[in-house]
Amino acid sequence: MEEIAQRVRAAPVRAGDTKIVAIDGPSGSGKTTLAGRLPGPVMHMEDIYPGWDGLRDSIRRLVEWVLEPLAAGGRAGWRRYDWEHERYAEWHDLPAPRTLMIEGVGAGALAAEPYVSVLIWVDAPLSLRRHRALARDGETYRPHWDRWARQEREYFAGDRVRERADLLIGSR
Predict the structure, then answer these.
(1) How far apart, in whole angstroms, are the C-alpha atoms of residue 49 and residue 58?
(2) Which end of the chain is more exposed for a tag (fewer CB within 10 A), N or C?
(3) How far apart are CA 124 and CA 118, in angstroms?
(4) What whole-number distance in Å separates Cα of residue 151 and Cα of residue 168?
């Protein structure tokens, strides 16, 4: 954790007065756990994915709803996606913190790069990731695993997230 803290302290502020720490990597790799161990508020990408086919669209929303407003000193926030009703629900205001952890697939997108102070890639072996994800989300995730994994692979390859990361973290 000290290496991450040092990186964050040394990183430039790129979104107004807020340092953005993007924690990205495949599903079940340990991103949420890592984010919870770091000081500061955490925004979860899963709150803005517009359903199981919405990875790319969530990146646009991250930039429009959170990153651009923070950079401009404006009102940032997001609408929570209601997975049960398959639509967006209430708006959540996001006062500009000194440091904001954004965790989830899409946090380290190329479109977010101008605003990100530190990009962290988290990964783990496929069998462990799948076990964790299904244990966490249960049977609701099982029928969507392959569909989501395909979107992840396309996104990771196109945006070269791992290659651009400032820190690489493996979990076991």
Answers:
(1) 5
(2) C
(3) 20
(4) 21
Angle between helices 145-159 and 126-137 (to 10 degrees): 130
Q: Do 109 and 67 contact (CB within 8 A), yes or no?
A: no
What is the C-alpha separation between 153 and 146, in angstroms, rounded?
Answer: 10
Architecture of the CATH domain 2-47+98-170: 3-Layer(aba) Sandwich (3.40)
Q: What are phi and psi of 104, to 5 degrees?
A: 135, 165
What is the C-alpha R_g of the chain? 15
Closest to 67 in 3D by CA, of 43, 88, 91: 43
Encode pLDDT of 12-43 as tens digits. Answer: 999 999 999 999 999 989 999 999 999 899 99
With helix as H, strand as E and coil as C, how does the chain read?
CHHHHHHHHHCCCCECCEEEEEEECCCCCCHHHHHHHCCCCEEEHHHCCCCCCCHHHHHHHHHHHHHHHHHHCCCEEEEEEECCCCEEEEEEEECCCCEEEEECCCCCCHHHHHHEEEEEEEECCHHHHHHHHHHHHHHHCHHHHHHHHHHHHHHHHHHCHHHHCCEEEECC
> Against a cut of 0.85, is the pTM above it?
yes
Taking only the tens place, the pLDDT of each residue in 58-79 is 999 999 999 999 999 999 999 9
